[in-house]
Amino acid sequence: MITEKDVIPILKKLIQIKTENPPGNTLEAIEYIKNIFQTNGIEIKIQKYAEDRANIIAYYGEGDGTVILTGHLDTVPSGDQTKWQYPPFAAKEYEGKIYGRGATDMKGADAALIAVLIALKKNNIKLKKRIIFLGTSDEEIGMDGAKAAKEDGIMEGCEFVLVGEPTELQAGVAEKGTLWIKIKVFGTSAHGSTPHLGVSAIEGAVTLIPKMREVIPEFTHKIMGKSTLNIGKITGGTLINVVPEYCEFRCDYRLVSDKLRNEVKNKIEALIDDFNRQGPSRAEIEIIHEIPTIELNQENEIVKFLKQKATDLGKDRVIGLNYGTDGAMLIPKYNVPFLIMGPGKLNQLHVTDEYTEKQEVIDYANIVYHALIETFS
Asked: How far is CA 249 from the centre of its chain?
């Protein structure tokens, strides 16, 4: 049994260590985790792949094949700290909740998974699989940590991946893919008093923006619903009295199936081609980020066990995630069974006064611990 004292002090310390991304420095957190594992006689590897960034990989057991338990160590920025009821890096505990940046996303799961490996070691549990804890960096910006781990071969021989992202302990069996596109619109500058002598790139962008949603297919996924679009950023112009010669806006498409990806891209290209033929401004497309859609298509014993545990807790429906996880970097190509499952309420992602339920973190640690023992002993 994993108790409060095994998990919550780790969670509080992780919250107290700033890992906001940007800038994305995770080395202090990794040093802390390294010391915990080494104190408990657990083999570790530090994989430094960029300045101030690294992954920590811990290993338990010598079984045939591996099981990966993964969570990211970086967080989004805390924003205006004066708006927080409790300081974002104080790890304040109040009425069964732990407050702080990263409490839900996702240091609660990190602490629980660390505690799982320590409990396996302390109790000398013999398993048929080798258990790997993968603590990554840069999940919030680009997933470079998971990419570095995959390129280093961590997925070779892997038979199951548990991604500890917050799901309120519901079983996540799918996540939307990402397609981020920058649309660059070019016009011709002129004096603001003679706009007829120029071509406004901003006005060109304004005619394009409403059409960007029209490229989304009507397809509805049985779990994740429909694909979505958020136009999250627009910039253009220099001065109020200058006709803007450049404007750009960025589109965040979340796709419920990778079968839709090429269709969306082709429709956007056709839309831009038509825009350029009509003039007077012209536009270009730049794809700036892509993450595939993933979906569980085969179950093994640990998947069934974890889904049953979720049901036992009253979490009897499987869910799809709107947001991306490191799983989307690790799973494709290997196509192994996986679940996205962890403590934390979905409405606590990236918010001011972020918190996680203390008991849910403890419950999660015990669910994973017993799942490994029941499945692989």
From this structure: 23
Please tell me the distance from the alpha carbon of residue 189 to that of residue 176, in angstroms, as a whole number.
40
Q: 3-state SS of the chain: helix, strand, coil percent to 5?
A: 35, 30, 35
Residue among 348, 340, 375 at smallest CA distance from 170: 340
Mean pLDDT of the chain: 96
Total count of residues recorded for the chain: 377
Instruction: Round the CA-based radius of gyration of the chain to a whole number and report it.
Output: 23
Mean pLDDT across the stretch 356-372?
Answer: 97
Identify the CATH number of the domain in which residue 104 sits: 3.40.630.10
| 278 shares its domain with 348 | no
**Does residue 317 surpass a pLDDT of 90?**
no
pLDDT above 90 for 63? no
- The DSSP symbol for 191 reads B
Percent of the chain's residues with pLDDT above 90? 96
Considering the entire predicted model, what is its pTM? 0.93
Given 226, 259, 291, which residue is the final one in a domain? Answer: 291
**337/147 Cα distance (integer angstroms):** 19
Domain stop point among 241, 274, 291: 291
Distance of CA 233 to the CA centre of its chain: 20
Give me the sign of the Cα torsion angle 359, 130, 320, 73: positive
Distances (CA, A) of 9 to 15, 107, 258, 361: 10, 12, 41, 12
Question: Could you tell me if 372 and 162 are in contact, meaning their C-beta atoms sit under 8 angstroms apart?
Answer: no
Q: What is the pLDDT of residues 72-85, one digit of tens each?
A: 999 999 999 999 99
